[in-house]
Structures are given as C-alpha cells and as structure tokens.
Amino acid sequence: MNNQTLILIKPDGLTKSLTGNVLSRLSETKLDIVGARMVQVSRELAEEHYRELKDKPFFDDLVKYIMGEYHKKKVMALVYYGENAISKVREICGKTNPEEADSVSIRGAYGRITTAGVYENVMHASANPQDAEREIKLWFTPDEIIADIYSTIEVEEQTKTLKWQ
Ligand code: IDP
Ligand code: MG
Q1: Best substitution site from 62, 65, 93 to test ligand 1's pocket, by max atoms within 8 Å of Cβ?
Q2: What is the pLDDT of residues 106-154, one digit of tens each?
Q3: Which residues line ligand 1 (CB under 6 A)?
Q4: Cα(first)–Cα(last) distance of the chain, in Å?
Q5: What is the mean pLDDT of residues 87-102?
Q6: Of the four, 8, 48, 150, 163, which is 20 to 30 A from 138 by CA?
Q7: What ligand 1 atom has the least distance to the C-alpha of 52?
Q8: Whole-angstrom Cα distance, residue 42 to residue 39?
Q9: How far is the C-alpha of 11 from the C-alpha of 22, rounded, in Å?
C-alpha cells in the first residue's frame, strides 16, 4: 500500500553535516521525495509536533532540541511517498534510543545520548498513518507537496506575502 511519511533531519544531524548521509541511506528505500523545506522551528511548532509527549519529563529538553537550542537553529523537513513508506523509513531510522538502535540504522550509526540525557537521534520519522497525516499537515502547506496525498479546498485569502524584488 502506498503511503506518505514526514521525515525531519533534526538540528544535530544538520550541525554534524549528516544531511547527505541520511538522504543516501533513505534513497535505499526507492521512495519518492514529494516535499522538502528548511525550517526554523518556533516553540509553537515544536510543542504542537510533540504534543503527545507533553507530560514526559524530557518534554522541555525535547522542545529545545528540535528548536535548535543545542545546535544550529534549523531542521530539514521532507515528505517521502511510496509503497509502505512509513514502515520502510522507520526501519532505516532505527529505534528511538540511539544506544539501543541497530548500529546500521541511521540513529544507531549517528545518534547519541548527551550527558544531560537528551536523545540526539538525528531524525524523525512518522510512526503510523494518523501521525503522518497530522505531522505533514503541520509542517507543509498543500502547494509545497508535489503529489495529491490529502484532499484540499480552495480558499480565497488576502494576505501579505514576500515576493522577490
Ligand atoms: P520516535 O521519535 O522514535 O517516534 P517518540 O516516542 O515519538 O519516538 O519520541 C519522540 C522523540 O522524543 C524521540 O525521537 C526523542 O528525540 C525524544 N525521546 C523519546 N523518549 C525519550 C527519552 O526517554 N529520553 C529522552 N528523549 C526521548
Ligand atoms: Mg514518534
């Protein structure tokens, strides 16, 4: 079954120049990249993305981590689409705890736990179709995705946007 998944290369991955390595590993899946953008993560976006973990003791650190407080303040967000995209990407990504992740997985190869206990695990990958839908709609607008993955509606809006001068 075809599905789509949100991938984030987290600030530690970008700071350590691991973008190429992560994308090379992901290319083994033969999935299609249908969206990509660089994002400076606001507190609002961070808290919304991880809202299901808000009662965890590590939540504050996690929000700071994804906002780039410990690294460069940027995240690369991607949407991959294709046959079993969610499970294929989770497999290559590896377990949440980088010390427990298979050493050939991305998190196993490049992740670490800091002495302060932050899991610097390099990337995010949606866990299931419900999470993928919520997460993709949070990180991307419909016109930033080059495939018809979710239904859209046309809305007339008057907003100020930046144009190249
Ligand atoms: P996942 O990223 O593998 O789906 P989740 O349980 O959804 O794992 O957790 C989201 C993120 O929160 C993890 O990727 C990791 O950065 C962080 N995290 C999860 N569990 C812990 C923990 O026990 N200590 C520190 N950070 C954690
Ligand atoms: Mg998760």
Answers
A1: 62
A2: 999 999 999 999 999 999 999 999 999 999 999 999 999 999 999 999 9
A3: 53, 58, 62, 96, 117, 119, 121, 124, 127
A4: 44
A5: 98
A6: 163
A7: 7
A8: 9
A9: 13
125 contacts 9 by C-beta, under 8 angstroms: no
Spatial CB neighbours of 99, under 8 Å, sequence gap ≥ 6 = 111, 113
Average pLDDT over residues 71-82: 98
Ligand nearest to the CA of 63: 1
Query: Measured from the CA of 65, which atom of ligand 1 is nearest?
Result: 16
Q: Annotated catalytic residue: which of 124, 126, 136, 145?
A: 124
Q: How far is the CA of 130 from the centre of ligand 2 (A)?
A: 11
Catalytic residue list contains 71: no
What's domain 2-144's superfamily in CATH?
Nucleoside diphosphate kinase-like domain (3.30.70.141)
Reported confidence tier of residue 75, pLDDT bands at 50, 70, 90: very high
Please give the pLDDT value at position 33: 98
What is the structure's pLDDT at 88? 98
Q: What is the model's pLDDT at position 29?
A: 98
